[in-house]
Structures are given as C-alpha cells and as structure tokens.
Amino acid sequence: MHLPRFSVQRPVFTTMITLIVVVMGVFSLARLKIDLLPTIELPTLSIRTNYQGASPEVMERLVTEVIEEIVGTVPGVVEMSSQSSEGNSTVRVSFSWGTDINTAALDVQAALENEMNELPEDVIRPRVRKFDVNNFPVVILGVSSDLDPVELTDLVEDQVSYRLGRLPGVAQVDLFGGFDREVRVELDPDRLKALGLPLDTVLDAIRNANLDLPTGKIVQGRYEITLRAPAEFTSLEEIRDTVVVRRDGVAVKLGEIARILDTYEKKTRIVRVNGERGIRLGIRKEADANTVEVAQAVLREIEEINRAYPQISVISIINQGNFIERSIANVAQSVLYGGGLSVLVLLFFLRNIRSTAVISLAIPISVIATFALVYFGGLTLNLMTLGGLALGVGMMVDSSVVVLENIFRRREEDLEKPETAAVSGAREVGPAIIASTITTLVIFLPLVFVGGVAGVLFQELAYVIIFSLLCSLLVSLSLLPMLASKLLETPEQLRRRRSGLLAKLIRWSDSLFHKLDSGYRKLLENVLRQRLLTVFMALLLLGASLLLTPFIGSEFLPPSDEGEVRISGEMKIGTHLDLLDRQARK
What we know:
Blueprint: H1 3-9, H2 11-31, E1 41-50, H3 56-71, E2 77-85, E3 88-95, H4 101-114, E4 127-132, E5 139-145, H5 149-165, E6 170-176, E7 181-187, H6 189-195, H7 199-209, E8 211-220, E9 223-231, H8 236-240, E10 243-247, E11 250-253, H9 254-257, E12 258-264, E13 272-273, E14 276-285, H10 291-308, E15 312-319, H11 320-350, H12 353-360, H13 362-376, H14 383-392, H15 398-413, H16 418-444, H17 452-477, H18 479-487, H19 491-497, H20 500-529, H21 531-547, H22 577-585
Antiparallel strand pairs: 1-3, 1-4, 2-3, 5-14, 5-15, 6-14, 7-12, 8-9, 10-11, 13-14
Helix pairs in contact: 1-16, 1-18, 2-13, 10-11, 11-12, 11-14, 12-18, 13-17, 14-17, 15-16, 15-17, 16-17, 16-18
C-alpha cells in the first residue's frame, strides 16, 4: 500500500488535492437545489372527461366504461380505477414500475384519439395528465379586495397571474374561485308561451346575431384585401335589440321577452381570505426548478404586487418552501450536533488536542466532498441526502481513529521517527480498515437496486453514505498520515507542555478513562466466568425483542408537522352553496 508513503513524502501535493476537493464541494453546496424529498414520478396517469348535465350513472355507462375499454388495450397497464360523478369522469391508470410515463401518456392519448367516435358527440375531449408529486402547487396565494368580483377576477387574470407566471421556475398559475363574467338571458316563460316561441328559435337568433364571419376578398391592382363582417355583440343594448322573430310584420326583440343581466357565472366554489370573499392562486413549478427558490421569488413578487395594486391584498396561504427550509435546517443542525459530539468523544478518549484536530478533519472534508457528488450526480439537498450524511458522520472517523492510534503507538512504544511511524502505522492497519469500510458499504449497496418509490427515496441515501465513507477512507490513508507526521508530538513533549488548567483536565480525563478501562476489564472477567449464563441472557433478550415485533406499527413515511391546521367538513349532497358558506364562516 503506497498511498500513505506517497502522501507523507509529498505533503504539498496532498494538501493541494485536498483543497481542490474542498473548494469543489463548497461551490457545489452553493449551487445545490433544495427540496423536501427526491424527485418522485409515479407511473400513473389520470384521464378526466366532462359531459355537462350527465348523471353519474350515465357518465359511467357512456364515458367511464368506454374509456376503460380503450385504455385497457395500451401495453403495460397494471391497474385501473375510476370515479364517476355528475358531469365528470376520472380514470386513473397505473403502469408497471420502470415504464416511461411520457411514452405511456402518448400511447394513451393516441388510443383515445383513434376511438373518440365511441364517446358521445358533445362530450369534452378527455384530458390525460401525469401524476407527479412535483405538479402540486408549491405556493398557494389568497387575493382579497373590495373591488367588484368580476373586476377583481379580470385584474388577477390580466396582471397578477401574468407577473407571477413570468417568474423563473414557475410553470403554471392556477386560479380558483374566480368570478368569470357572464351575460345572462333570463327568459319570461309567460311571454314565450303567449307568442308560441320555442326555445330553439331564441337560441338560434342569439347565435346567428353574434357572428364574426369572412365575406371574401377584394383584388385591386397590386393589393388583395380580406373582408370580414364583424357582428359580435359589443353591448347589452345590442343583445336587447336582437330580433328573435317577426309576427304580423312586427319584430319581436329579445329585450321584450327576456331580461338581460351583466353578471358572473353561477358559483360552485367560494373562497374566503381572512373572512373576505377572494380568489386563490396555485403556483406550480417547472420539473427541474428548485422549490425553495421558486417560493422565495413568489414571495418577493407578492410584495411588489401589493405595492403596485393597493386596492388588493395578496398573501401567502401555503408555502412549501418555508416548510422545506425548516425541515432541511433541522436536519443540517442535527448533522452539526452529531459532528460536534463526535469530536468531544474523540477528545475524551484521545486526551490530545492535536490528535483530535487531525482526526476531526475527516468529518468536514468527507462531508464537503460528498456535496460535490450530490451536485455532479444531479441530486438535490433533501431529507434523504442529509439523512445519509447524518447517518454516516459518526462512521467517518472510524478509519482515522484506527490509523492515528496505530501511528501514535509506534511513536510511543517503538520510538520511530514521525515520518516512519506515519507511513508504517497507516500501512499496517490499511487492509483492516479497507475491509471494515467495505463491510459497511455492502450493507447499503443493495439499496441502489431497490425498485419502486422506496428505491427512489433510499437510493440517494445509499449513494451519499457510500461516497462519504469512501472519502473518509481516502482521508485516513492519505491526509491523516501526512498531518500526523507534521503535527503529532512525542510523549516527552506532551509531558513537558502539560501544565496549569490543561494538565488538570487531562489528569481528570485520564482517571475517568482508567476507571472505564478497569470496569470493562472486570465485566469481561465476569462474562468469561459465566459463559452459559451470558449466552442464555443474550438469547433471552433476543427472544423478548422478537415478541415485541407485532406491537410495532408500520407506515410508508412518518408523520410530519407542517405548522398548519386543516379542517374539512361535509354536508348532505345537494346542500346549497350559500348554506355551506354560512356554516364555514361559523
């Protein structure tokens, strides 16, 4: 094993390589994307179809069952589930894991296009969507104002949504609870009956009067002009003056048999923000965008919008970026605490500040080098990657402790020179620590080949642990021998420099260490004298532990505290929306 000798003989080269790795890791950390969990794209498609006015039974017979038969012919389908309600049909299709969901979506879309004639003529074309965790809104905003509802909706659609949609990383802005303008024609049934007018005649009159049709072209000289006959309604008066039919030479206008109202569509959803009627906006991010960066950009734009439009108030209702930042900060804090406690434990057992400092370098260097892997591997800084660091931070110093202890032993017992002790000590235990590291790595290696959602979640954790332990192994066989040859003191130097408070602390730790050592020796002696009892107690504890297994619950992911309280209520089917609104306000 020539790596320790090479590192000790070329300290400048070893230091420069280490600094290069550290610089790459620091710059990688600054560019890492932050997310809650790794990117999960389930092989699932949803097909939504609308058929206005159809009952659930009709939707199931004419739409849902037909779509299921069509989609069932697409290769790779594993499971289908459907839900039919009034005017809506939803079919969810699951494919085998590993299927390219983009290709599957194209196959489903093509199959539906080829068999569209089997669906009712006036059904709205089915919409195929991929089920992706990243498609859920990262930020949900609430907009409230004293403006007219229709005017507020126009302002939000034309100005607020536009400003939010142009932000980097924002893919889509969804509007919920808007007041869409509607010109309503309320017919008088008594007058229709008196004139004997069927509804079709009224509908045809309105439809034919509201047209914008081409009327041909005029060719004159070098020019060709396209003509149109714009006849679309521009005011309520034009709608009222629309002639529906002529009776005895007298024109019957629409305003004489109906009331024309400029209002908004019938509400099927009411949104309230801080108790006031408002609108909700859902911000969806692009697939490769960073959730935290998008959320921060949206919050900054909200401040600009509130200053530019004082007549409205835009607030953040749900912000995934804030929850992700808190979660990542907590895990990162745990990593720092774990590293700090590891250093304190090392200081207690080594009782040497220089030795502790040399070993402690293995932790930050290995962690920073791992950030470079995360960046160049296309991973994100999430709970799984940080969890891998937290899990591996205590194991990062194992190899370094063994190497340094052997180097120190050779200097103290064999009185070797610093360079000789560093090279010989590292080479002597090199095969042992390599074998120890490999036995740890093979535990996490199978996680790389796990399929399904669990594979997506735990693969990144396995990658981080494997790479961090490999980095710590290289540090223990290269950087640590080089530093030990330069920094470690001989026992005589240590005894000469130990004075004052430091000497008292070292003597106190020595006494504790000797007590721990003597206590452990007595425990071993008792165990060796009572071998059968020791084996029996170990088997008894194992059996008792196995008996507790049925009482341990299981779940996919542990519950998390998002700092929110959500209350959902349900009333009888057919309950009026205004009654639901009054109940919600209570």
